[in-house]
Each structure stands twice: as structure tokens, then as C-alpha cells.
TrEMBL record:
Gene this protein is translated from: dapA
PROSITE patterns named among the record's database cross-references: DHDPS_1 (PS00665), DHDPS_2 (PS00666)
Cellular component, GO, one term: cytosol
Name recorded for this polypeptide: 4-hydroxy-tetrahydrodipicolinate synthase
Main subcellular location: cytoplasm
Entries under Pfam families matching the protein: DHDPS
The species this protein was found in: Streptomyces caeruleatus
Function: Catalyzes the condensation of (S)-aspartate-beta-semialdehyde [(S)-ASA] and pyruvate to 4-hydroxy-tetrahydrodipicolinate (HTPA).
E.C. designation(s): 4.3.3.7
Length: 300
């Protein structure tokens, strides 16, 4: 029995959900964004996702989002895909952002489920179809019900997979069975959106990850997939397990991943800057805890 080879992931395998650097005065730091983007690609990222959750998209303006795409595209010079987060709770606004991102040079769009208004599944489906019809770029649908209040149900994803420009999912549903159902019935590229699932989802046919933790350890996050791809599952598992304390400290210790990623990047001398309100920076005690876990991981 022969099996059909899996198609190449549409945006790469190892994607970073990149933070948005700001100056100390709180302005968009385009020079910093270019330096960080170039470093992330040099360290193994083959895709960068801008203006997502980690990129503080609710607090950046339409113009800033487009400027960020243009700057990062210039910095990576075709060495990595540039995926622009354009999702909002307003379909018309989402379409406007999608068209602006396309004009700015994005390679793809990340579109989150409409939040706050909690539309039913037929409305969620119509929302995504309208965005996909309006823009000429491939879409990754972002399923993160803990933040949006609205799930993109597996059956909805299966129907949406019929659209030629809906090609991927960033999965933060914590529904591993649901993800496998969609993988079995569609050709959607599934990206782990929660770092603890990177290897597990990849092992059952996922495309890779869109990682917050990759902001600070991009090469080590990629190594998990590379080793698995080379056929050494036990070593890949050990690498994933070794990353668990850092993943927990950055993502599940009471502070948002944006805050912890920026705290570590600032300590490492890489572009980050402050977070925008209503987020608040990590205090010194939290930063020291993060640094201790990070140092143990990178030197262990």
C-alpha cells in the first residue's frame, strides 16, 4: 500500500507568533521589528505571524499593521513567509484589514473567529467566507475559543476547507480529537498554536506550529520538528519535554505570553520594548523567575 505524500505546508513549518516591538515612548518600532524578524529567520523560523495575539493586535492601528507588514517583508527578503493577522469582531473591518495586508505585501492572512458577539456557527462560516472571497491571499483560520468566546467547530472547518483560499488552521482549541477529525477529512494545514502541542499535533499530521515561545528560543523549538522529521521520535520527545518548563513559565504562569516574551527579549538585548495598556509589564520578580527557567533551558 502506498500513501500520497503530504503537501508542503503553505506557510512553512516553524512559524513564530512575533511580538510587535515598541519604543520606550510606546510608538511602533519598525527598525526593531526588522532586526527581530531577521534574527528569528536566521535562527530557523520559516514564517512570521504578525499582529496576532502575541503581536498585540487589539492595540495597534490599521496603519501600524500595514507598516509592520511592509517593514518585516523588507527585512526577511523572501526567506520566510509573512502572515498578517487581520481578524476582528467586525466582518467589514476584517475585510478592510485583509485587503490592506495584501497591498502591503503579506503572503497570507491569519483570521481569528469573531469575538465578543459570539455569533452562531452559520454566521462564523459566513464571516470567513466573506473574507476569503474578498482577498486574494491564502487564509489560516485562528481557533482560540478561550479568548474569543466562539469555537470554530470541526464541522464548520470541514465545510470551510472547500474554499480554495482557506488553507490552514492555527489551533488553540485544546480539542485534540476535533483537530484529528478535521485532519482526517480535509487537506487543511494544522498549526499548533499552543507550544505544548507542537510535537503531538505534528506527529498526527499537523503542518507545524505558530509559536510564542519561538520569540526567545526559535532554533530550539524548530529542532523538535527537525529531529522528528529525521525519524528520531524518542529524541524529539525529549526535546519537547525539556522545553516544557519554559513553555509553562511563559504561557501558563499567570502572565500573557506577550508580556513574558517581551520581558525575556528585553533582558536578552533583542528588540521588544514595552507592552501597550491594558497589558502591564512583568515585575522584577517575575522577570527573574523567567530568566532562571530560560537559562536552565538553554544551558542544560
Amino acid at each position: 500500500m502506498t500513501t500520497k505524500p503530504s503537501p508542503a505546508p503553505p506557510f512553512g513549518r516553524a512559524l513564530c507568533a512575533m511580538i510587535t516591538p515598541f519604543t520606550e515612548a510606546g510608538a511602533l518600532d519598525l527598525d526593531g521589528a526588522q532586526r527581530l524578524a531577521a534574527w528569528l529567520v536566521d535562527e530557523g523560523c520559516d514564517g512570521l505571524v504578525l499582529s496576532g495575539t502575541t503581536g498585540e493586535s487589539p492595540t495597534t492601528t490599521n496603519a501600524e499593521k500595514s507598516e509592520l507588514v511592509r517593514a518585516v517583508r523588507e527585512a526577511v527578503q523572501g526567506r520566510a513567509s509573512v502572515v498578517a493577522g487581520v481578524g476582528t469582531f467586525d466582518t467589514r473591518h476584517t475585510v478592510e484589514l485583509a485587503l490592506a495586508a495584501e497591498k502591503a505585501g503579506a503572503d497570507g492572512l491569519l483570521v481569528v473567529a469573531p469575538y465578543y458577539s459570539r455569533p452562531p456557527q452559520d454566521a462564523v462560516e459566513a464571516h470567513f467566507r466573506e473574507v476569503a472571497d474578498a482577498a486574494g491571499l491564502p487564509l489560516a483560520l485562528y481557533d482560540i475559543p478561550a479568548r474569543t468566546g466562539t469555537r470554530i467547530e470541526p464541522e464548520t472547518l470541514i465545510r470551510l476547507a472547500e474554499h480554495p483560499r482557506i488553507v490552514a488552521v492555527k489551533d488553540c482549541s485544546y480539542d485534540f480529537l476535533g483537530a484529528q477529525k478535521v485532519l482526517a477529512r480535509t487537506e487543511l494545514a494544522y498549526y499548533a498554536g499552543c507550544d505544548e502541542h507542537n510535537l503531538a499535533l505534528y506527529a498526527v499530521g499537523g503542518a507545524g506550529y505558530i509559536s510564542t515561545v519561538a520569540n526567545v528560543v526559535p532554533a530550539r523549538m524548530r529542532a523538535v520538528l527537525d529531529v522528528f522529521e529525521a525519524g528520531d521520535t524518542p529524541v524529539a520527545a525529549r526535546l519537547q519535554q525539556r522545553a516544557t518548563p519554559l513553555i509553562e513559565s511563559m504561557m501558563s504562569a499567570g502572565l500573557p505570553g506577550t508580556v513574558t516574551a517581551k520581558a525575556l527579549l528585553n533582558e536578552l538585548g533583542l528588540p521588544a520594548g514595552p507592552v501597550r495598556a491594558p497589558l502591564r509589564p512583568a515585575d522584577r520578580e517575575a522577570v527573574d523567575r523567567l530568566l532562571a527557567v530560560y537559562q536552565e533551558f538553554v544551558t542544560g
